Amino acid sequence: MTLRFDKLGVVIAVIVAYATFAASFATFRANRIVPGQARSILEALPPTTGPLLLGIVIVAALIALLRTPLMLRLAASVAALAALALLIGVAGTFLTPAGNTFARISPASGFWILIFAFTLLLADVLTRFNLSPWARIGVLVVATVAIGLLLISGSWNDLSILKEYANRADSFWAEGSKHVTLALGSLAAAVIIGLPLGILCHRVEKLRAGVLNVLNIIQTIPSIALFGLLIAPLGWVATHVPGAAALGIRGIGTAPAFVALFLYSLLPVVANTVVGLAGVPRAANDAARGMGMTDRQRLFGVEFPLAFPVILTGIRIVLVQNIGLATIAALIGGGGFGVFVFQGVGQTAMDLVLLGAVPTVALAFAAAIILDAVIEMSATKRRVETA
Amino acid sequence: MKAWLPLLLRLVLVVLLVAFVTSPGWFEPLLKPLTENNAPAIYNQGSLLTLTLLHLRTVLIATVAATVVAVALAILVTRPAGAEFLPLSRSLVNIGQTFPPVAVLALAVPAVGFGEKPTLIALFLYGLLPIFENALTGLTTLPANVVEAARGAGMTGWQRLTKVELPLSAPIILGGIRLSVVISLATATIGSTVAARTLGEVIIAGLLSNNLAFILQGGLIVAALAVLIYDGLSAVERYAARRMGRDVE
Fold first, then answer.
1. Is A48 in the same domain as A176?
2. Is A61 part of a structural domain of the chain?
3. Do both A264 and A125 map to the same domain?
4. Which of A87, A92, A241, B7 could form a disulfide linkage to A158, CB 3.0–4.6 angstroms apart?
5. B33 and B188 in contact (C-beta within 8 Å)?
């Protein structure tokens, strides 16, 4: 029997070897802002579990390295990821001196690189499985539940990022809901305004170039500048328009952030509506006209459903982009997870940065997976119906 | 009759931009009404020209690095030897795009410290994706008959790549570079939150001291740069497309 190497496996094995033997697994710090000391896997874990983790990682890397069945690779990547996730919590408890509430343990570069390597393996396996949209959402749900259970079980409680969370549990959820409201609310506003605007641009050719150019230019204004520039006009509205202040419109805070995100969202929604409507086959429109459909019936019965997948793609771009941009709202007092990111940068407390960055990335990632699945479902449905 | 109008507008924009960054004092009366309590109307903690040049340098370094790596990767995964990586690289690009620039920036700080380095890393990583995606599209949608003809003419793999495939994909790759540059120009401003010296410094100083004039001048310089560069690269792209007989929308 000859051993055959998997090309991606070689890359993964090299990364794993580096992360395991050259990089550190966890960082120990006497308090939250002093520089840390590196700990390897064997130093960071109790004498029984350290070698266990080392064994799991090495076996999983070997499975990746050789040409092995997909199911085995799936099992190896999931097992390695699960072991890493569980044992980093154990390392947190093991490294914290008894009764010491100042010491901070955080995952170090080696841990993150190992997570990256095995996620790569998992992503490769899942890509090769060519999962259906529902199955992809299923994988997302399973992963979310697993992480949720780990969080609830308290096994990560000795890690620095969760200590930061424990100090700010209330504001975490408040900022989180602000973040989501900002991202989703501005998306909803952009869809309500952008869809009719897109339809108008599609029908009235003279408007099209003008509107799209203006929206294009708005996109080039850097986000922090746009956020800042809206402070003045909204402050003016708040003081001069009766009732505006009562509605929560203020110069700083959520209002300028909302308007800025809305302005950034318009271009993808309008542009994709125009492209989607332009892509409706002539024959479909002619047939609808021949059947005696009115303009309105044609729009809602034929053009719109056919353009739907393209419009959804625009909405996906907007949602992922808004979740990321909403972090910047924190700079002008708009709240959101960015509050923790910028506080953390200001205090050079990197775990606080992570507390803001990790949920943002997770939200954006989940939104992308869900909307990609919905787009694929709507596109295949269309194809089946029109075939 | 109307053909010269866009050109004139661009020229005016270039002149205004150069005038503003070289002698911002001329524009002080325009910006003065935006300040309160006699605050300075023109950024006074550094020269706007230096900041603009540093901003452009950061974007240039990141974009050149991103272009080299992204095109090399795209070439690799479209060769028979790297074909195995193609599906994975596609999903990685998809995943990568969900990482918000602020998060990338903030997460790069613990690894390399404050200053220009985390900004360069964030811009590089973020700039990779559009270029890689476009290079992949360009290299995988080549007209089959042309590639066949090149093979039939006895060209080696290297010759086919440099004389046929890359020139034919150039317009699409340029499109990716254009997207990447515009994203980087805006993202570089955020780099100032981790102490990189870019035009974001002016905007953030304005946010902190509640000085609208600072926010406006920082934002407008970046926006003008972005519009001009976007425009210039679009023209290069159209030129390349015309030469290659490919359609670019």
1. no
2. yes
3. no
4. A92
5. no
Residues ≥6 apart with Cβ < 8 Å to A228? A256, A332, B203, B206, B207, B212, B215, B219
Residues of A in contact with B34 (CB under 8 A): 232
Total domains in the fold of chain A: 2
* DSSP designation for A35: P
Cα gap B122→B100, rounded to integer Å: 10
Q: In terms of Cα–Cα distance, which of B249, B248, B231 is closest to A278? A: B249
Phi, psi of A5 (to 5 degrees): -90, 145
- Residue A238 maps to a domain: yes
Q: Is A307 on the interface with B (CB under 8 A)?
A: no
Q: Tell me if B100 and A323 make a contact (CB, 8 A cut-off).
A: yes
pTM, 2 dp: 0.84
* Domain hosting residue A191, numbered range: 169-386
Mean pLDDT by 10 residues, chain A (387 residues): 79 92 88 82 89 93 91 94 92 84 86 92 88 91 93 87 88 93 94 93 86 83 79 74 65 81 90 88 86 85 86 90 89 87 83 89 91 86 57
Q: Are residues A329 and A226 in the same domain?
A: yes
Q: Which of the 8 DSSP states describes residue B34?
A: G
The CATH fold assigned to B45-244 is: MetI-like fold (1.10.3720)
- The arrangement of strands across the sheet holding A37-39 comes to A37-39, A26-29, A104-107
Contact A224 B200 (CB under 8 A): yes
Q: Do residue A237 and residue A94 come from a single domain?
A: no
Helix A169-203 to helix A205-220 angle (10° resolution) is: 150
Q: Are A108 and A85 a contacting pair, CB within 8 Å?
A: no
Q: Does A361 touch chain B (CB under 8 A)?
A: yes
Is A1 within a domain? no
Would you kindly state where each structural domain of chain B is located, as residue ranges?
Answer: 45-244
Whether this model's ipTM surpasses 0.95 comes out as: no
Structure token digits, residue A122: 């998992």
A329/A266 Cα distance (integer angstroms): 18
Highest mean pLDDT among A189-193, B42-46, B144-148: A189-193
**Spatial distance between the Cα atoms of A252 and B207, rounded to a whole number of angstroms:** 10
Domain-ending residue, one of A115, A133, A167: A167
